[in-house]
Amino acid sequence: MIHKILALFGTALFALAAQAQTISQPSDNNSGFGGAGIGQSFTATVTGTVVSIDVRSLNNTVATLYIYNGALGSGVPAAVGAPAYTQAGVVLTAVGSGGAFSTATLATPFPVTAGSTYTFIFDAGGLALFRNVNLYAGGTAINNFAVLQPAFDLAFQVQQVGGLAGVAGLRDAPTLGEWALFGLALSMALLGMGWIARRE
Q1: Deepest of 12, 85, 129, 170, by most Cβ within 10 A of its Cβ?
Q2: Alpha-carbon dihedral of residues 90, 95, 101, 107, nearest 10 degrees?
Q3: Domain encompassing residue 95
Q4: How far apart are CA 197 and CA 135, in angstroms?
């Protein structure tokens, strides 16, 4: 019986552990979108957080990243609107077709829910991002902040983290209080196993 309880306890801990998943549409057809407010909608595959976004840039530039809830970008063409997340100073490096991604690592991981749709937008002077035909079923390319381009997807990747590591408030190293709470829960579990063992 104790072995079964330990197995269940271990399974539960494993399920709560970090589960990294990448949404990836890496290919391009040697063409791109240029102008303001270029991005992509996507559907989260885990409940947790987005920790980084990769795009393939045709130009060297420093961009601002916006993330919106929903699949419509800002909802208003040529307007930033009300993003749920903003990060300035994202360095995008020019590469050729199929080249390395430029990675925007989020200063604050952005919370997402599995099955829900979000949009990231990059904006900068001289911005141009590689695209391809519509290869990704979970979203579409967007330009000018809110103009949907259903025939296209950017070449992009979204890195997500689920489980405890993706839950807001538990992203960083546990505090002393969190360790104490974990210790209390573990002690109670061990006492419970001992009580069950004595009853057998």
Answers
A1: 129
A2: -10
A3: 20-162
A4: 56
| pLDDT tens column, 54-113 | 999 999 999 999 999 999 999 999 999 999 999 999 999 999 999 999 999 999 999 999
Q: Is residue 73 part of a domain?
A: yes
Enumerate the β-bridge partners of residue 126.
Answer: none
Q: Are 157 and 27 in contact (CB under 8 A)?
A: no
The CATH number for 50's domain is 2.60.120
Whether residues 179 and 83 fall in one domain: no
Residue 8 and residue 40 in one domain: no
Helices 176-199, 2-16: inter-axial angle, 10-degree rounding: 160
pLDDT in tens, 102-159: 999 999 999 999 999 999 999 998 899 999 999 999 999 999 999 999 999 999 999 9
